[in-house]
Each structure stands twice: as C-alpha cells, then as structure tokens.
Amino acid sequence: MTSILIRSAQIIDPESAYHGKQTDIFINNGIIESMGSDLGVSADAEVNASGQIANTGWLDVLSYCGEPGEEWKEDLKSLSGAAQAGGFTHVGVLAGNHPLPDHAAAIASIRKSGEGLPVHFLPLGNITCEAKGLEMAELHDMVRAGAAGFSDGDNPISDTGLISRLMEYASGLKTPILFFPYDKKLAPGGRMHDGVVSTSLGLKGMPAVSESAALEQILQISAWLKVPVRVVRVSSAETVEIIRKAKASGIDVKAAVPALNLLFTDENLESFNENHKVLPPYRTEKDKAALWQGLSDGTIDAVMSNHHAQDIENKAVEFEYAGWGASSVQTVLQAMTAGGRPDLNLIASALSSGPRKLMGLPKVSLNPGQPADITLFSPTAEWIFEPSLNFSKGVNQPMLGKTLKGMVTGTVKAGVWFANKAALKNA
Fold first, then answer.
1. SS3 of the chain: helix, strand, coil, percent, to 5
2. 98-127 tens-digit pLDDT
3. Which domains does the chain have, with CATH numbers?
4. Is the pTM here over 0.90, yes or no?
5. How many alpha carbons lie under 13 Å from residue 149 in its C-beta half-sphere?
6. 76 — phi, psi (to 5°)?
7. I need a labelling partner for 194 at 20 to 30 A (CA). Which of 102, 332, 360, 374 fits?
C-alpha cells in the first residue's frame, strides 16, 4: 500500500495551515502530498474521517516492556499493538529485564526487534549500570546505537555528585535523561499516598515531600550547571508549583505526568484494587486539580502512559505484595476525556508536540511535503473496554470493563494506515 486518502478530517495542529479546518489528506509513499477538498485523487486505501480529529502522531515518552527476559508480561509486539490502539505512533520504551538495557548491544537489539511494528520504538537506556544508581552506564555508546533517552525506571538516583555528572554528560550528548524525582528514604515501605486514606487503610504512606524534595535537588543542580533537565512521573501539587517557579526563573525544565494520575486519586485504593498500585501513587483531589492546571498553563509539558504491564502472579496477590504499575498505554486518551475535558488543543500539545519537545525531537506538522505521521481519533465516542479489546499482555488494566469516552480510529506511521481493531468492532 503506497497511497492513503483520509477524507473530511478536522485538523488540530497549530503548526498546520489547516488548523481547525475540515479537509482531506492525501498521502503518497509516506509523504503528505496534498490537503484540501475535492482533491481529485484516488488512493490504495480510503479512510472516512468525518467527525474525527487528525493530529500529528502521538508520542509516549516512557513505557516499560519485559522483552527480553520477561516476555510473558509484555513483548514488543504486544506493546506495539496496545500503543497503536492507544493512538501512539512513537513510544519511548525501557525494554528488558534480563539483560537490562544498560549497554549498546541491548539498544541495538531493541531497535532491530521493533522493525515493522505499528509503532516506532525509541529505545531508552538505563542511566546507571544495572539501574543501581551507583555508576554511569555507557551513555555515549548507547546513543551511537540509537538510544533516544535514558531512565532507571523505578529506581531514582539519589547521589547528587552522580546526578551532576550525568546532567553535564547528557547535555553534551544532546540526549535527555528522564529523571524520576523520588526520595525512597522519605517513604520507607510506602504503598500509596500518605494521607487520610492511607491511615484509614492501615497502609504505609508515600508523602508528597518524597517527590518535591528530590525535585528541588535536581533543579538546583540544573540551575548551577546551567543545563536542561527533564523530569517524568510528577504527581503532586507541590511538584507542579516547584516546576512553575523554576520555569519562571529561567531553568530549562520540562515535565510529564502519568495519565492515570489525572483520573484517579488515593480514594480509588479503598477497595485494595492492586491495579491501582502505581508509582508514583495517586494522590488527592487537590493534587489532581493542580496537575490539570499545570497542563493547562504549560507548567507540565506532556502526558505519558507510565505503562507497566504485570502478570497475574504479580497482581492477583495481597495489596502489600502486589507489583507496581498499571497497563495503561491503551487508555491515555480516555484518562484525559473521562473528566469531561475534551480540550482538543490540550490533547494535541500533551500527546504530540509536548512530548517531542521533552525528548528533543524535531517538530512535525500536518502540511503538504511533511512525513505522514498521524493519529486519528474521536474525543467523544463511547465504547466498552472488553477484555477482548485489551491488546497488552498485562492483566493490570484499571479501566477494563468500563464504558470509556474517546476512541482512536487509527494511525499512520511511515505512510502505512493501521486501523484500531477496537474501533472496527465498535463501528
């Protein structure tokens, strides 16, 4: 298939000459060849996009994948299917448990394994050797092998001397380190947000200061070195305010919030549902409101899935012993629309342009002559998330079985149209 004609889509892309307009899009050999009405062309495939939104392809800055080593939890193929159904054309992936992605060969392997899949994987390498936070990993070699960024996943780095060396080194490589601001020593044994709900449930809490104190430290080092800093998985009102002040002071900081933290609060853990045991934890209504405000005013730059698929052996156990994480890459749009907030410009910036800026990637746009990288969706369509429509291997999907608002119709990646199977079933 070399040509695609998308008919009557509403364009949401401030970089496009057609922003806010309804138009046809003709794609030929991976390039947007023309846009407008009555184009007078035929194509190998036609997509009726009446009543739907066309946005530049969405990018998820961080998803976890078990391959290699724990493929039964998630492999690149299943993650790709779930991410595409969620509207993503690009995914920053931290892949592998045995071995960990802390060397060039692992990055090269991820790139090769991801070829031909519905999404383009951006391999992330570990920041430190074996993600232990003790010694810098082979960052330069991993960048040469194709690493798009670095993360130690659930293992935050606490050594300030190492943090400063990492910032300087990554700045020279022009490749972002995705810092997770979390001080474990301030939340020993924590299982959820520290507050009224954790006390009533008898669970050890994780106070917001465990996030804000770590972030303050990271930002102070960034200001001292005068280098950019990227933080992910922010969750508290205090953190939002710290980032807001840092940006106002001139610090080049960009941040991403997990989608589920925009939807749920610590009250959702009152039933001890293990699928809501995530890191960072859901916090209070006040925190959730602050996260939304941060997104709206540009303090927070991106929404991320924070996808972490788990198998039944790690989730169908007592809450205390359940593994961290939720299978969430397929329901990011729905988390943003569930609260009655289908702000199309906000969705576009939080899922497309914002993540690209955070990752230091070039701008893309829906204009003739540009590569065809497109997400097509309806922000108001409702559907039931049945188990048969869960394309991840993860059993830990908090929104499974619910009626959801917002449906991805399909994506165009590298000039190929990928229809969302869930949309086809609900058509």
1. 35, 25, 40
2. 999 999 999 999 999 999 999 999 999 999
3. 3-54+370-381+403-425 (2.30.40.10), 57-359 (3.20.20.140)
4. yes
5. 28
6. -65, -35
7. 332
